[in-house]
C-alpha cells in the first residue's frame, strides 16, 4: 500500500504539477482507465486459466470409446485433460 501511496504522490508532483485543471482531468482519467483495463484483463486471464475441462465431460461415452480414448493410460488421460 505504501508503494501505491508513493506512486500517487510522485504522479501528482511530476505529471500534474503546473498543468491546467482540464489537462489534469484528462491525464488522470486516462491513467485510471488504463489501470482499470489492465486489472480487468488480468482478472479475465486468471479466470480463463483456472477453467479446466476434462475430455470425459465434453464427449459422450460412445464418442470416447469410438475415438479409441479408452485405451489411454491414466497418465495419458491426465495429459489430454491438460
SSE blueprint and pairings:
Blueprint: H1 2-15, H2 21-50, H3 55-58, H4 61-66, H5 74-81
Question: What is shown here, in short?
Answer:
The chain has helices at residues 2-15, 21-50, 55-58, 61-66, 74-81.
Question: How large is the share of residues in beta strands?
Answer: under 5%
Tell me the count of domains: 2
What is the structural class?
Answer: mainly alpha
Low-confidence stretches: none
Helix and strand run: HHHHH
Shape: rod-shaped
What is the rounded distance between the termini?
37 Å
Q: State the share of residues found in helices, binned by percent.
A: over 70%
How many helices? 5
Largest sheet: none
Give descriptors for this structure:
76% helix; 82 residues; rod-shaped; mainly alpha
Question: Could you explain the architecture of this structure?
Answer:
By secondary structure, the protein is mainly alpha-helical. It has two domains: 1-40; 52-82, no CATH class. It has five helices and no strands. The mean pLDDT is 81.
